[in-house]
Amino acid sequence: MLRHTRPKGTQDFIPPVSQQKLLVENTFRDLAVIYGFQEIVTPTFEHTELFIKSSGTGSDIVIKEMYSFQDRSQRSLTLKPEGTPGVIRAVLENRLVLPARLYYITPCFRYSRPQKGRYREFYQLGIEALGEASARTDAELIHFGVRFFSRLNIAGLTVMVNSIGCRTCRQDYREKLLTFLRLNREALCPDCQQRIEVNPLRVLDCKNDHCQTMLQKAPVPREYLCSDCQTHFTIVINELTARQLPYRIDDHLVRGLDYYNRTTFEFVSDKLGAQNSLGGGGRYDYLIEELGGPPTPASGLAIGLERTMLAMPQLEVPTGRRQLVFVIWTSENELRTAVDLTDRLREAGIPAQLSFDSPKLKRQLHLADLADAAFAVIVGEEELKRGVYGLKNLTTGEQIELPAPELISRLKPLLAV
RNA sequence: GUGAGUGUAGCUCAAUUAGGUCAGAGCACCUGACUGUGGCUCAGGAUGUUGGGGGUUCGAGUCCCCUCACUCACCCCA
């Protein structure tokens, strides 16, 4: 029985999975930079009110999923359940000049029962285009997502898009929907009956088959868009087509957070189980104003890192050895030289390691093998007398001798550093 | 928060139809054969309060109850 175990819903990223995670993050970073985004880092926790204000009191995140706590001065703080609110808060607080394109990689926390692709601590990769009003921006973010997933060789991806209108037309639609739902209340599942009053739009994407067949006749947001919203959506669609991005319009796609308007989109994978959304986003033209800033249009996208990793072809078990040189010494007399050599290798940018723990050559070679090093450099008494090092290729077993001064220059091309 | 399934060495799994040499194997790890050469082979070795607690029984990894953890699904969403 282990004495200490990780808290429920958290996970350890150990090698080689940690490498996989790094690959995903780096891919995201590179792409974000290419699209003109700069990184923003905000605190892991914020004042609780920030999230209540942004996500909406009706959202499940606020009602039952936040990791909230009182600090020692009785301030109510909350571990961030998503990335956007902190970013907006920081942008306003630091008076950043808009428009601005920002990206973030951050852990997020939600208290919910863990399952495949859902954790209590999870990582979100997000981009926010603040101060950009154009529908073309929305399409560009979708393009960003598609490109990101394709760079990671993720197949089976579907892009879902929809528009949920603006303040005005959404209100009209809401009334129509409410009338419809109240009329058909009995035919809906208990969950949906609840949702009618709390957040009626969410009834649309209920998973219950019964509800879905019934909802075929329900009014959908797109039918009630005002002309501006309609134009906006048309441009998004045209832009996607022009960029040759396949998409599906899903009239029932409603995002869970209250702050979205007009464009909403989601990346759905067919190899993920129940939690099949790899990421999603949309336009949120009211949030900044809502949080005390000037009226500012904005559009964003957030991707789930763990789900991305789940959808990747397979954990690329790195075949072959690590780009690492293991320095081996044969007796205490050579230890000093070995330590200095290791240090010089490192100065030259060559990953190098040695073991101080055993003077046994055999043991050291075995450790080099365990560490999966590509090469062993042998610093032996014989070699030192002649001014050479032994260089052993641990894959092939071949061993050659190199004049001491040549070692680094010969090693560099072998390790591609 | 609700439901179902699973819990045996670090890992993957065994342990006779209804409880009785049942606490094992393979991989991994350590030591040696190999006094300056890893991987291969051979010979040894260490490791488990069978998730935890209680009960039934002469006797429980095996049956019952509670609990914890994990997994999947609902819910929610990344």
TrEMBL record:
One of its GO terms (biological process) is histidyl-tRNA aminoacylation. It is an enzyme of class 6 (ligase). It is found in: Cytoplasm. GO terms for cellular component: cytoplasm. The keyword Cell wall biogenesis/degradation does not apply. It comes from the Bacteria. Its EC number is 6.1.1.21. It catalyses: tRNA(His) + L-histidine + ATP = L-histidyl-tRNA(His) + AMP + diphosphate + H(+). GO terms for molecular function: ATP binding; histidine-tRNA ligase activity. CDD domains: HisRS-like_core. InterPro entries: aa-tRNA-synth_II, aa-tRNA-synth_II/BPL/LPL, Anticodon-bd, Anticodon-bd_dom_sf, His-tRNA-ligase, HisRS-like_core, HisRS/HisZ. L-histidine binds at E82, G83, T84, R110, Q124, E128, R255, Y259, Y260. Pfam families: HGTP_anticodon (PF03129), tRNA-synt_His (PF13393). Keywords: Aminoacyl-tRNA synthetase, ATP-binding, Cytoplasm, Ligase, Nucleotide-binding, Protein biosynthesis. Residues 24-351 form the Aminoacyl-transfer RNA synthetases class-II family profile domain. Belongs to the class-II aminoacyl-tRNA synthetase family. NCBIfam families: hisS (TIGR00442). Homodimer. This is Histidine--tRNA ligase. It comes from candidate division WOR-3 bacterium. The lineage of its organism: Bacteria, Bacteria division WOR-3. The gene is hisS.
